[in-house]
Task: structure prediction
Amino acid sequence: MFNVVFVLGPPGSGKGTICSKIQENLGYVHLSAGDLLRAERERAGSQFGALIESHIKNGSIVPVEITCSLLENAMNLHKTANGFLVDGFPRNADNLSGWSKQMSGKVHEQFVLFLSCPVDICINRCLNRGEGRTDDNVDSLKKRVETYNNQTFPIIEHFGKLNMVRKVDSERPVEEVYEDVVKVFEAANQM
Ligand SMILES: Nc1ncnc2c1ncn2[C@@H]1O[C@H](COP(=O)(O)OP(=O)(O)O)[C@@H](O)[C@H]1O
Ligand SMILES: Nc1ccn([C@@H]2O[C@H](COP(=O)(O)OP(=O)(O)O)[C@@H](O)[C@H]2O)c(=O)n1
Ligand SMILES: [Mg+2]
Result:
């Protein structure tokens, strides 16, 4: 049974940044749904490249069958990991139901790390991210924020009702955010 921590928050809230620090220090393997989708988009012979790019540009969510299979394949490459940081997933109801269907019995969901940060700050971070992403522009960001508000935040609320959400204010400097995140992991792994 794989331990899984879902990492959610608006685009630019620092999910990738924090996950790479947890991976470095706590033995969890970082799996970014967005990174996996971008790699699949670039993979020679993929049937999904054009579909993925159109969702990414529009800030909409790729059908779960694609994303969940990429996540499961990646987990199976790291069978000895302490756990997995599933970054940027589940982002909507389709993601959540597809995951439950495909993964129940194979994973233990520990908690949801919710990185909370005001949207205007998040947008500025994305515009200055400097990774040359096709969706780090004002038009795509507007749509991504809408998707976050309308589809992803309700998923966080759903987990909130199950007492699974650990919220950390990620408006602060990375080191301060990370310090609180480590406390969350320590508390969870003592249980
Ligand atoms: N706490 C922070 N304070 C300032 N900048 C940050 C912070 N966390 C991340 N960033 C920067 O903001 C941008 C988006 O961060 P990233 O980790 O890619 O977020 P996400 O994966 O949630 O979109 C990156 O350029 C990153 O260096
Ligand atoms: N579960 C997911 C995660 C990302 N994606 C797509 O990939 C894009 C980029 O996701 P990301 O997680 O890399 O973006 P950030 O929140 O890290 O900025 C999203 O806007 C979606 O179009 C998806 O369709 N389904
Ligand atoms: Mg990211």
The radius of gyration is 16 Å. Helices lie at 15-26, 33-42, 49-58, 64-76, 93-103, 119-127, 138-161, 174-190. The longest strand covers residues 107-116.
